[in-house]
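Troubleshooting log. The previous structure file for this entry was overwritten by mistake, so regenerating from the original sequence record. Sequence copied from the archived sheet and checked twice against the printout by T.R.
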Amino acid sequence: MPHPQGEVPSLLNPFYPTSTILKHGDRMLEIVFLGTGSGIPTKKRNPSAIWLQYEDSVMLWDCGEGTQKRMMQAKVSFMKIDRIFITHWHADHWAGLIGLMQTMNMEGRKKNLYIYGPEAERFVGNLLDLDYWGPRFRIVPKNVPYSGEDINHVWGTKKFDVYSIPVNHTVPAVAYSFEEKDRWNVDIKKAEKLYGLKQSPLVGKLKNEGSVMYKGKRISLKDVGLLRKGLKVVYTGDTKSCKCLEVIAKDSDILIHDTTFLDEKIGRMHSGAKAAARLAKKTGTKKLVLTHFSRRYQDVNPHVKEAREIFKQTVAAHDLMRIRIKR
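Regenerated output below.
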């Protein structure tokens, strides 16, 4: 995949909704960083939340305090969200859920809202018991495995899948990956040259079924096709370096990585800039995005500098930053 056109602008204007365009064909995946801080919000950074939209499917990865207000600033609709994926149940990753669900209810939401996470049934049930309100729509908790070293299929459609894997934090926690499915396209010039097959409904059948009979010959999609690898985006949540991250981050187009501290600190169960960069380099990642910065850092350019010494294709996220990936 080609590298983005230009660097992310200076963090001196953190509310500027910049875009990074990666051309990868005719479908678009959009990521909006709604919160890029850790623990306590600051004037420039909300706690963790990431909007991810692929065609008509809208997901939210974590939902820290103030997420719905950031959505208003980003001009994205919270009513479009179908699924929320919580990495772990520290408040800076879920405290925005209460207000968001209340607003959805007051705005007349009817369709189901699915909330995924470690022990989701327990925590979502507790949240719903905090008030007298009764939602007019169904809120469906989905437990995500948080032990072991296996990748788990969490949800999917005909076009993409969402996976999780346990990570190394102070409480049960997981990382998530969005993985677009590979697609075969027919090289019509090659098909015509080798078999005389021209553009027709038979080409669509070839794509769908993998082979067709034409003029007494069987044409295989692999003989005249072009495989387009699907996009892959990984979000680590909060975690110290661990083997599971290497597994889920392999060959990712974008790796969004916890970088709470400049250096990985003993006993803090968070990652540093160098650890994130080493993972990106080892896993063949194309672009590393650092996020979840501690409020002690007013300037995160040192994080980027440290990471780029190991992995050059590194940027620091800021609230309202957009990344659009076109395939």
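The first strand starts at residue 19 and ends at 23. Archived copy saved in two places this time.
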